[in-house]
Sequence to fold (264 residues):
Amino acid sequence: MQGDGKIVAAGSTGTGSARDFALARYEGGDGPLDTVAPETSITSGPSGVTSDPTPTFAFSSSEPDSSFECRTDGGTFVGCSSPLTTVSLGAGAHTFQVRATDQAGNTDASPAARSFTVNPPGPPPPDTDGDGVPDSADRCPATAGLPSRAGCPSNAFSFVGKVLLKKGLTVLTLSVPGPGVVRGAQAGAGASQVGRASRRKPALVKPVRVLVGKAGKVKLKLRPSKAGAKVLRSKRSFPVKLRITYTPTGGKARSKVKKVKIKR
Fold:
């Protein structure tokens, strides 16, 4: 033993020129042995009710460089590290526990615990057309539409280019957003008052109906009716207001009025 209290040990092996000699000095510390276990804390993770069947927990120790062991629902403690995501858990109550062990081998005798309940979300509400709008709020539940239109397909349409006038034929071009039906008829053709009597005001244009198979341009061909043809016998043309209606498949109709000429 040396003057500073350190132990020195010496020894040799072999004989003659093949002898090996070794010298060792014990450098052990002078402090007392560590017998105090660390405190374990859970720093994040669910408590109460969660919809996540694989929750994640983070944890720490009051002593640096500690190792950890975890378990769920009273199972066997196994080595783990923070953060830890559990295996998939069933619906109901569960408990997560973790304990720390310090470098001296002291293990926390009172593991940190977190109790929680897994309550998975129920099935999504019915959405027959798959457009993201539940049937309960979908005004067109059988046809995929837009959330901004309460689940109905767009019924916006526009007139494209100039009106084409031919002999006895007026052609309108429309742009529509999808399949449906386009109808054209004279606006205001119907009952009109003459004194106290009423009579039908004859339509000067034949109604027309066009089936649309996809988004794009649609041509609406309008011809004079018998009453319109009679007018054209004395005039080269006459103006008429047309009501154009587009109804998307499974959706709501939209109408616009446009004034055009009918030419003989």
About this structure: The first helix runs from residue 226 to 232.
